[in-house]
Every structure is written in C-alpha cells, then in structure tokens.
Design goal:
The chain is α/β, with parallel strands linked by helices. It has a domain of about 160 residues: FAD/NAD(P)-binding domain (3-Layer(bba) Sandwich). Bound molecules: flavin-adenine dinucleotide. The site of flavin-adenine dinucleotide has 42 residues, from helix 1, strand 14, strand 18 and helix 10.
Length: about 425
C-alpha cells in the first residue's frame, strides 16, 4: 500500500506539494483552515510573477544597507512596526549574519536554478490545464527611475548573463515601442526575457479542482493545532475535526508554520512580511508587460482585464490593519514613474493584504526536520512563493520517495 501524506495548508506551496505527491503515487490529504471558496490568503492577491530574474537572496549587503534605512521611514514600503522589534530580534540578527557576500554568492546559482526549473514546470502544467492558468512568458521589465538605479540593474544583468539568463537593456525610446500606451518616466529598464506570470486566483482555482478530480482528499475549515507524537515520530495531526493519522506530514502553512511547528518543539525561522495589492481596470493603465519599479519597490502585472499593483514589506504585519499612509506613498511613487496612470486615493481602493512567509536568509526552508524524520517543511518563500511553487512540490515529492533532488539542499535545510 502506498504511504499516506498529510499536507498542512492549501496555499500555492501546499497545493503543489499535493500535486507532485499525487503524481508520484502517494495518498494525499490536504488540511486547510480556510473554507474551500476562500481566496483571501497570501497565495491569491499577489502579483503572480514567475521570476528567474530574482536570483539575489533577500539577505544581501545591499538590502542590509537600504532596508534598514527604509525601515525607519513611516512611508517606505519596507517597515517594522514599533513595538514588534523585540519579538523579531532573533530573526533580524540571523538576517544581518546572512547578509554577506559569501552567502549571497553561494545562494545565487541555487535560487536561479530553482526559479528556472519551476518556470519550466509551469510550462508543463500549462499544457495540463489547457492554458487556464493565465500563464504568459512576456518577460519582466526591471525599470529604474534614476541613473544610479539603472547602474545597479546593469550590474545585476551582468550576473544574469553569467548564469545564462537572456536580458536586454532598453532605453526610453525602446521602452516606448514595447509599451506604446504607457508614459514611462524612467532612466531605462532591463528586460528579463525568461520571466513570466500566472493569474494566481484562476490558476489556484484550477489546481484545487484538478487535485480533487485526481483523488487528493481535502479537509477545508479544519484548523491544525498540533501534532500527536509517539516514540520520536509524528503519528497524527490534532485538528478542529479530531486527530488525523498519516505516515508523513508536510508543513506548508506559510507564515503560520512557526506556530504549528512549535507545538512539536520545531523552530521554523519565518516571520510575516505583509504586502498590499489592488487591481486597476486595464483601460486606466494600458500596461502590457509585467513591470517592477526597482527603487519604488512596486510590481505591476497585467492580467486579462486588470493590472495588479503590489508592494510593501511590513515585518511582523497582521491582517486587518491597512496602513493607508503607506499605500498612498506607494501609489504616489508609482505615479511619478507612470504619470498617465489615473490619480488614486488609497482610502477608496479595494486593498488586499497578504502575509509572506519570510526567512532571515531569503532562501525557503524545504526538507525533512532533524527532530522528526516524518515531518517535512516547505515554507519561507517570501516574494517568490508562486514562482517556486511547482519546484517546491516536486522536491518534497522526491524527498518522500527517497530520491535526491538535484539542488544544494543544505542551503534550504531548517
Ligand atoms: C503583495 C504581494 C505580492 C506578491 N507577488 C508575488 C509574485 O509576483 N510572485 C511570487 O512568486 N510571489 C509573490 N508573492 C509571495 C507569495 O504570495 C507567497 O510567497 C506565497 O503565497 C506563500 O504561499 P504559502 O502557500 O507558503 O502560504 P499561504 O498562501 O499563506 O498558505 C498557507 C495556508 O495554510 C493555511 N493555514 C495556516 N494555518 C493553518 C492551520 N493552523 N491549520 C490549517 N491550515 C492553516 C492558511 O489558511 C493558508 O491557506 C507576493 C506576496 C505579496 C504579499
């Protein structure tokens, strides 16, 4: 009989774990606290970008310099709310330790390979779902508003070239031919040709229904509170619907993972990084190619009828307390670079909030825990959960099957 695996969390990570575990022939049950129709979690309102271009980990000397400065500014997209500093101190100390040149150089090839392989898996998945995922491979424009910002982007494009990534430097004139209907006031941009995007809500809707048809069992409205342990093994999860047994357990509960893991004495070094997004009707901003304004730290993704604008990284943020000042500042920065975008008032927008699971290294934690051999963790994908969903699921299924994934797994271990 094949092993039974319980996956905790039906976000983009848990669902891809379920997909590849099911493909490998395991019995899979997904436990999810939210309802089946809920599309509120972090995996839904995000920008859906698939980013082989994002090969530099969050913990880098550059982020340490600019991030710490930004965190003191109440209108900056990166923010640590006062009063939450103490509880997140151990995380920040680890972040500072990880933000060095040597660690960055080691992480770059792995982050790139993970994203690149994952994008290839999206192409395969897109044939399974007959293009229902809104998958596109139009690339991603990394646009800088200042000459200094553009120089930094060019330096990154140099590293990208060494990794074999196809890029193209575009001046204002060339940008005009790509985006004829958008007034882009930037110094220039680097086009990452191998990036793409999906439409998160549509894609996950398809994935959930496909998994159900393929025999994956789902328990929605079921809250996991802890684990039942026996002789150094986990034998069941304790839930609001009682104890549920399995042979192996995959913890993929995003920013909520540390609390669940703690009930078994396992430390998961993840804190929530809150971000915001909202959608604009396409006729208000006729953008065709996904775009990141690098200094403003804003991502814009064109979907079928809308353009989604996403930004913000409030460490230890919580859902339900939108900082309208910060969202307005994000809008104002965006409007400086895109002056023909409609004037917007943050208070009148339908703003979505999402909690990214962020590790201090900027590298996700994927693998078996040392403490319990039948507990695997798959979280901490921060700004790249959608992009890295398929490859994470594939790696988890390989580990459960006793196979060796072809990655530097040491980097991703807990
Ligand atoms: C503004 C913004 C823009 C973004 N843009 C992009 C992008 O362009 N590209 C990209 O790749 N990524 C992007 N991201 C990041 C991406 O959204 C996240 O990395 C990803 O959604 C994390 O997925 P997850 O499955 O780990 O967590 P989640 O989506 O949070 O899923 C975890 C699930 O576990 C469930 N759960 C929690 N606790 C329990 C419990 N006790 N019992 C049972 N179930 C539980 C939750 O209900 C939830 O459904 C963006 C994020 C934000 C905020």
């Amino acid at each position: 009989m094949s092993k039974k695996i319980i996956v905790i969390g039906a976000g983009v990570i848990g669902l891809h774990c379920a997909y590849y575990l099911n493909q490998a022939g395991f019995g899979v049950e997904v436990i999810e606290a939210a309802s089946e129709s809920s599309e509120e979690g972090c995996s839904y309102g995000n920008c859906g970008l698939l980013v082989p271009s994002h090969f530099v980990p969050l913990a880098s000397p550059e982020m340490l310099r600019s991030g710490l400065k930004m965190m003191l500014d109440r209108t900056s997209p990166v923010y640590l709310p006062p009063g939450k500093n103490i509880s997140s101190l151990p995380w920040f100390l680890k972040f500072i330790k990880a933000a060095n040149k040597k660690a960055v150089a080691r992480a770059i090839p792995t982050l790139y390979k993970l994203n690149d392989e994952s994008r290839k898996l999206y192409e395969e998945l897109n044939t399974v779902n007959n293009n229902e995922s809104g998958f596109t491979n139009k690339g991603l424009l990394m646009a800088a508003t200042t000459e200094k910002g553009l120089e930094e982007e060019l330096a990154l494009a140099g590293i990208a070239k060494d990794l074999g990534i196809k890029t193209q430097l575009l001046d204002q004139q060339q940008l005009k031919t790509i985006e004829p209907d958008v007034d882009l006031r930037v110094a220039g941009a680097v086009l990452y040709k191998s990036d793409g995007n999906v439409s998160p809500e549509g894609y996950l809707r398809w994935l959930k229904s496909y998994l159900k048809q393929s025999g994956v069992a789902f328990r929605y409205d079921t809250f996991v509170s802890g684990f039942q342990l026996e002789k150094g093994k986990i034998i069941a999860v304790e839930t609001s619907s009682g104890k549920l047994k399995a042979d192996e357990f995959v913890l993929a509960a995003g920013s909520y993972s540390p609390k669940i893991a703690a009930s078994a004495g396992v430390k998961v070094p993840v804190i929530a990084g809150k971000g915001y997004s909202f959608d604009l009707a396409k006729d208000k901003l006729k953008l065709q190619t996904p775009l990141i304004l690098t200094e403003a730290k804003v991502a814009l993704t064109p979907f079928n009828n809308t353009v989604r604008l996403g930004s913000g990284m409030e460490f230890n943020g919580t859902i339900g307390d939108i900082s309208y000042n910060r969202v307005q500042a994000i809008i104002n920065r965006t409007q400086k670079a895109l002056p023909n975008m409609e004037k917007l008032d943050a208070k009148k927008l339908d703003i979505w909030e999402g909690l990214r699971p962020v590790t201090p290294t900027g590298i996700p934690v994927i693998g078996r825990t040392n403490k319990y051999n039948n507990l695997l963790v798959a979280t901490g994908h921060a700004m790249m959960g959608v992009s890295l969903g398929p490859i994470t699921g594939k790696i988890i299924s390989q580990l459960v099957a006793g196979e060796k994934p072809g990655f530097d797994m040491e980097l991703m271990k807990l």
